[in-house]
Write a structure and sequence with these properties.
heterodimer; A: alpha/beta; Purple Acid Phosphatase, chain A, domain 2; 9-stranded mixed beta sheet; 7-stranded mixed beta sheet; globular; B: 848 residues; alpha/beta; Rossmann fold; 5 domains; 7-stranded parallel beta sheet; 33 helices
Chain lengths: 224, 848
């Protein structure tokens, strides 16, 4: 049973989706971060063979989010790509073909992994903006900072995760972290090892348990 | 070959013996004759009895008699034969490899080289003996690239490397004899599988070759012999009837009460052990884990600082130079008290010591015999070992070992079943080394014991993996390694892939460790990555016999500085605690029954000292609960403040118990979902659930059924992290992940490519990958000893279960409670678990 969470930040209602995206209905905008496209190809170039279907899954899920919400615009809060070496011809073609099936506009706030973004932005129809992007009451950056007084900041970069525990059971899940001025999105890619404990980040952690988004009680959630 | 040609050779070898004042043992003559009669086989005699010359005499005699006649016989001028052959260039005399000697330990290859050179030099034979290991100098390597010596000593990894050269068929085509040392050790490992495959390859090129394996005593010697010689040969088994009597002595605490019911470090026994240690006599103190070695070494130094110059530490994680220093020190007598782990178990030519101690259970009968064999000097003389129990139940283990030794019952050892990762690596090796035709290659691979029942389907899957990256990696040209040519021969065409493959051949044994270094530079050894993750800067721990302070982890090197003061904190190295063997487990059950019976009759005269000392514990167990007979299994259920406990005591080793515990947890969880804390030791396991969990109501024969064992085991293993770390090895050996990858922008570890991440990705995106199945199968076999587990479950199904409800934890249960490490196993989907958690949070919220 798919469950989303609707919260209000910066005076605007937004919906946290279990597909690892934020839906901002007021501006028909979908917000994602940390796609790390081509990461498996970067690994292959270092001698580690991983299934290349990782890319397909990422793109399919993004298309599904756009389809479910009817988003007209997608904001990518950094790390669209993983590495220059992983941005192979094959990846550029595959994403380009996918992009032609998606009508929504795409804006990229460059992240630290996006060094090859200039080379693909044109082919993929992605407009680069940044280092920070302001839209209405929101500000989008890649690496979370202290925020600003006159806007709510959305960021990525940290790949937050939260450990839920009750009784003797415990499980670690990716999450959205929502603080007073700053919100951090989970990594959109499911191929991500390094994570940051949510507790260090914000007041509220919304965990993604398969197809549900649930609020982690601060009492029981712990780092890592 | 005819006897006429051969006899002169063997006479020469006998002359060599005579010159050194030795008389050949009957088993040595037997081995020489069998070899010269064209047979292959296996030689099993105790350490130090002369196995090497038994295997080497025949091949050397044959070689000597077939030398080209124009070779000048050695005069005194050739007495410099030690240097002369080295200078001889291949141009002056072509060299041809005739005798291949494989040792699992490159550290002893030097000693073996000297032993094999000795008769050659003394008899003045124009034969060259060289080593080829990871330590071989580049000058020798270069020479060996042109031609190999008549006698070559090598390791499994270096042998594979040699097979990967394009001219391998020609270079190995004249091999007449292959000798495999320490076969009992290699046999059970993937390195053994690697050797089996390499030998099958060489036999294809040189059908006349004879294989001789050297092995310690094991329970299934005929299987070991067949695995060594392959399916196309019929092995002779030669065992010198020269068993040395073994004397086992046990150090008892001065007060029986002083021996705790739990724990495995044994520090309480330190004073008793110190009383009997003599720094004038060479002594090996074997312990079971590296951390225990650090602790004992540290404790001896603190209590007897004056012994410091003669005390040393030897374990698998100490720096290699340090280990070699210790081995040399033991040999030349400058070091006399060495605390060691199984790192010192191997090495044939390791000189004997005067005394051997075993701290804690030896966990197996063969292992105790091998360690005891380190003591004493001459064949026929008894070997002695002093056992030091670390907790009370180990007295029972020692009694069981003593009993088994008396009956000559020793554990069998099994080969690895069809590891596809090793096969994948071997395929690329052979494609480089002259290429192969798939049909003939399939037949060749199936002549090994490891792959005797390999299916064509699995073979083809593996071939597909190395040719086009399988279904998964087809997208990356890096993984299209082997190409099938129009002539039907599989070869490697890319030079770079060849280089990469050779760089990664030696990776079967390496672990995920990081080097430990002083900030100033000196290397101390290596440490498991997981342990480093636990360290905070400034934290002190014991390493390589010293107290060090962690500074930082930088570029995957753990930097430390000398630490002041004391600490009991030692690195824990995963997987270093062996379970007790099946034979020993059976022995312990019998001994417990015997001790119980003796208590009953109130007479201990006829039992061993160990059983006498453990009488109190057995009596307490009987009073609180029950002491099972050897064909029964005890089950205890009780409630404490911690919750509901279920204890089961099959006495079948920690790994089997951990496996059965997860299966039982899974099956119970299907009937009544909950989260269990699972603990296992060598005697049994514990499942702990919340208060009021209805263990008794759910308990039934179906719980231990072997039906659906594979599925249930897989499901429960899915819940653990174990398959992930196993997959790391499988991925590396199969070449899915290159350990060493020149030109790569970043190393695997720098990329954060942890084994669990890689496993997760494959499981999500390529669940049908056979290597995943293999990782799971290996986990089941290695981590849970699945085959043994099935036998245990059948026994549990058939045995009388003695169900008892003690009021408090019993002596048998106590170690499980004390050692609880708290692996939790949850049953139900993530959604069900989250629901349950939310209910709990709500309840707690309402209480607050």
């Amino acid at each position: 049973m798919r469950e989303t969470a609707v919260i209000r930040v910066g005076g605007e209602p937004v919906e946290l989706l279990p597909e690892r995206a934020v839906w901002w209905p007021g501006e028909r905008t979908l917000v994602v971060a940390d796609l790390h496209l081509g990461k498996e190809h970067a690994f292959a170039a270092s001698g580690i063979g991983l299934p290349p279907t990782i890319l397909d899954e990422t793109l399919d899920r993004l298309a599904r989010c756009i389809g479910l919400t009817g988003a007209e615009r997608v904001v990518i809060a950094g790390d669209l790509l993983h590495a220059k070496i992983g941005t192979t011809e094959r990846v550029i073609e595959r994403v380009g073909a996918w992009r032609r099936t998606v009508a929504a506009a795409m804006l990229l706030v460059s992240g630290n992994h996006d060094r090859a973004a200039d080379e693909v932005a044109g082919a993929w129809g992605i407009e680069q903006r940044g280092p920070d992007l302001r839209l209405g009451p929101f500000r989008f950056v890649h690496e979370p900072d202290g925020g600003v007084p006159d806007a709510f900041t959305w960021a990525g970069h940290l790949h937050p995760a939260v450990r839920l525990a009750a009784g003797r059971d415990s499980v670690r899940l990716p999450c959205f972290c929502v603080g007073e001025r700053v919100g951090v999105l989970p990594a959109f890619t499911r191929f991500s090892g390094r994570t940051t404990p949510a507790l260090a980040l914000a007041d509220q952690a919304w965990a993604i348990a398969d197809d549900r988004v649930i609020l982690a009680p601060t009492r029981v959630a712990s780092g890592g | 070959m005819t006897d006429v040609l051969i006899q002169p050779g063997i006479e020469k070898f006998e002359a060599f013996f005579a010159r050194r004042g030795w008389a050949p043992f009957p088993f040595q003559r037997e081995a020489w004759d069998a070899y010269l009669a064209g047979r292959s086989g296996l030689i099993t005699v105790p350490t130090g009895a002369g196995k090497t010359y038994a295997a080497y005499g025949g091949p050397l005699a044959e070689l000597a008699s077939t030398l080209p006649p124009h070779t000048p016989p050695s005069g005194e001028g050739q007495g410099g034969a030690s240097t002369a052959p080295r200078r001889r260039t291949p141009k002056s005399r072509p060299r041809t490899l005739r005798v291949l000697y494989i040792t699992p330990l490159r550290a002893v290859s030097r000693d073996i080289e000297l032993a094999l050179k000795l008769p050659v030099l003394e008899l003045g034979l124009p034969i060259e003996v060289e080593s080829r290991t990871g330590d071989t100098s580049s000058a020798v390597r270069t020479r060996q690239r042109t031609s190999l010596p008549e006698v070559l000593i090598t390791t499994p990894e270096s042998l594979s490397l040699l097979l990967s050269h394009a001219d391998a068929p020609a270079r190995f085509g004249q091999v007449r004899a292959i000798i495999i040392d320490e076969w009992h050790e290699l046999l059970t490992s993937k390195r053994g599988t690697q050797v089996e495959l390499a030998l099958a390859r060489i036999r294809g090129w040189s059908p006349a070759v004879r294989t001789w394996a050297l092995s310690a005593t094991i329970g299934n010697i005929a299987d070991a012999a067949r695995a060594a010689v392959g399916a196309l040969d019929d092995p002779v088994i030669i065992s010198g009837d020269m068993a040395r009597p073994v004397e086992i002595e046990t150090v008892l605490p001065s007060e029986p009460r002083q021996l705790p019911w739990a724990g495995h470090l044994g520090m309480r026994m330190l004073p008793r052990v110190l009383e009997s240690l003599d720094p004038e006599r060479s002594t090996l103190i074997f312990v079971n884990t590296r951390s225990q070695a650090e602790l004992w070494h540290g404790a001896i130094l603190i209590t007897r600082p004056e012994w410091a110059p003669v005390v040393a530490l030897h374990h698998g994680s100490s720096d290699r130079a340090e280990r070699e220093r210790v081995e040399a020190g033991l040999k030349n007598g400058s070091l006399r008290l060495v605390v060691a782990t199984s790192s010192l178990d191997l090495g044939v030519d390791f000189s004997p010591v005067e005394r051997v101690y075993q701290i804690g259970s030896p966990k197996g009968i063969a292992r105790l015999l091998q360690r005891a064999g380190r003591s004493g000097h001459r064949p026929g003389e008894p070997c002695r070992i002093v056992c030091v129990p670390t907790h009370a139940m180990e007295l029972v283990e020692i009694a069981a070992v003593r009993d088994a030794v008396a009956r000559g019952s020793i554990e069998p050892r099994a080969v690895q079943p069809r590891p596809l990762d090793v096969l994948a690596q071997h395929m690329v090796t052979c494609a480089l080394g002259g290429g192969f035709r798939p049909d003939a290659f399939f037949a060749e691979v199936r002549t090994t014991a490891g792959y005797a029942d390999l299916t064509r389907e699995d073979f083809d899957w593996t071939l597909d993996l190395v040719t086009r990256g399988g279904s998964t990696l087809a997208a990356y040209p890096e993984f299209h390694k082997v190409a099938l040519g129009p002539d039907g021969v599989a070869r490697v065409e890319s030079k770079r892939i060849g280089q990469l493959h050779r760089l990664n051949i030696g990776t079967i044994t390496s672990e995920a460790t990081v080097p430990v270094r002083y900030v100033g530079g000196r290397s101390l050894g290596s440490i498991e990555e997981n342990f480093v993750a636990w360290l905070r800067p400034g934290q002190k721990f014991m390493f390589a016999g010293k107290v060090v302070e962690f500074v930082r982890l930088h570029d995957l090197i753990a930097y430390v500085r000398p630490g002041k003061g004391k600490t009991n904190f030692t690195p824990h190295w995963a997987g270093t605690r062996l379970p007790i063997s099946e034979s020993l487990g059976r022995g312990v059950r019998e001994m417990l029954e015997r001790a119980h019976a003796a208590n009953h009759r109130d007479e201990h005269a006829e039992t061993s000292v160990e059983l006498g000392a453990v009488a109190r514990l057995v009596r307490a167990q009987a009073a609180l609960s029950a002491v099972p007979a050897s064909d029964q299994v005890l089950v205890e259920m009780l409630e404490t403040r911690e919750g509901s406990h279920l204890f089961v005591f099959p006495f079948d080793g920690r790994l089997v118990h951990a496996g059965i515990a997860s299966i039982v947890a899974l099956r119970l969880g299907k009937r009544e979902p909950t989260t269990f804390t699972v603990t296992a030791n060598d005697y049994g396991f514990e499942l702990l659930a919340e208060s009021g969990y209805p263990f008794a109501g759910l308990f039934g024969p179906g719980l231990f059924s072997t039906d659906n064992l594979a599925e249930d085991a897989e499901q429960s293993v899915n819940l653990s992290e174990l398959a992930k770390s196993q997959f790391r090895e499988v991925a590396r050996v199969s070449g899915l992940v290159f350990q060493s990858y020149p030109g790569a922008p970043k190393s695997a570890r720098q990329l954060g490519a942890s084994s669990s991440l890689i496993f997760d990705v494959f499981e999500q995106f390529d669940p049908g990958n056979l290597l995943l199945f293999q990782a799971r199968r290996e986990v089941l076999e290695r981590q849970f000893e699945r085959t043994r587990m099935a036998r245990t479950l059948s026994r549990l199904g058939a045995a009388g279960l003695v169900i008892s409800r003690p009021e408090r934890p019993t002596p048998l249960a106590f170690p499980l409670i004390a050692d609880r490490f708290g692996t939790t196993l949850s049953h139900g989907s993530l959604a069900e678990r989250i629901d349950k958690m939310q209910q709990l949070w709500d309840r707690e919220g309402a209480d607050a």
